[in-house]
Design a protein that fits this description.
It contains one helix and 19 strands. The strands form five sheets. Strands 1, 11, 16, 17 and 19 form a five-stranded antiparallel beta sheet that branches. The chain has two domains: 138 residues, Jelly Rolls (Sandwich), CATH 2.60.120; 87 residues, no CATH class. The protein has 251 residues and is mainly beta.
Length: 251
């Protein structure tokens, strides 16, 4: 099968017509970006850096800050969690919400939370509280969240699954306020070699009340590497949105 353009190739990948290939994309937002010297991860949580679970996997729980996010309630009744297990294999699970009472995931070996979104919802159509997923016994160690008024986690962190290589094809960022931000695409690898815990820069853009548009980038990211986007602000109060996309290829 031959392709005249990259768009034709990506379309066939999206259709599932190219064995061993799939699309991976992620996007997120952060309000009130601070001037933290080490940068601030783009997500809806309050921590400046999203924590990384233990590589051996952890037991996690989900809880809402509002009692209406519950079976039969007007908010979110259950969430779909996509995660990597301790071996780095992608898994999915549906977790019923129980309002302000924590609910444990059935798996106790969650290595990384890839995404979290509404699976079933009541008449309100969105979460009525902040729904967080966190390390059991450590409620402040939050790995992802669905913010009140939303229906999915706005967090561009992803770990490349075991047995796969990610080829990032592009990314974008935007800033809503007159606050200059250096927005940087990062991952824990260099030239295809894993560097656990070291988030190395892959591309950067300076923005002040504007959008970068789609930025082409060609980066090879190995299995178990984490991809994320962070921002360094010149002044308090900026609002940053971002996203990236690429192709996962079986090794």
């Amino acid at each position: 099968m031959s392709f005249r353009t990259q768009s034709e190739f990506l379309l066939e990948v999206e259709k599932g017509n190219i064995p061993g290939h799939s699309i991976l994309r992620a996007f997120g937002e952060r309000e009130n970006v601070g001037t933290t010297s080490t940068g601030e991860d783009i997500w809806r949580g309050t921590a400046t850096s999203v924590p990384t679970p233990d590589s051996a996997g952890e037991q996690m729980e989900i809880v809402s800050s509002d009692p209406n996010d519950i079976a039969g309630g007007t908010g979110v009744r259950s969430v779909l969690v996509t995660y990597l297990d301790a071996s780095g294999n992608e898994q999915t699970t549906v977790v019923p919400t129980s309002g302000t009472a924590p609910v444990a995931l059935t798996s106790s070996d969650v290595r990384f939370v890839q995404s979290m979104s509404t699976f079933e919802v009541g008449s309100n159509g969105v979460a009525e509280g902040d729904i967080t997923i966190y390390k059991q016994g450590a409620a402040t160690t939050i790995y992802s969240l669905i913010e009140n008024g939303g229906n999915m986690a706005l967090l561009p962190h992803r770990m490349v699954p075991s047995g796969k290589t990610l080829y990032i094809q592009g990314w974008h960022a935007s800033v809503a306020q007159d606050k200059r931000n250096a927005v940087r695409l990062r991952s824990t690898d260099l030239d295809g070699v894993l560097y656990e815990g070291v988030f190395l820069f892959k591309d950067t853009t300076y923005l002040e009340k504007g959008s970068s548009g789609g930025l082409p980038v060609h980066v090879k990211v190995p299995a178990f590497s984490i991809v994320k986007v962070s921002s360094w602000a010149s002044a308090l109060g900026g609002e940053v949105a971002c996203g990236w996309w690429g192709v996962l290829v079986d090794d």
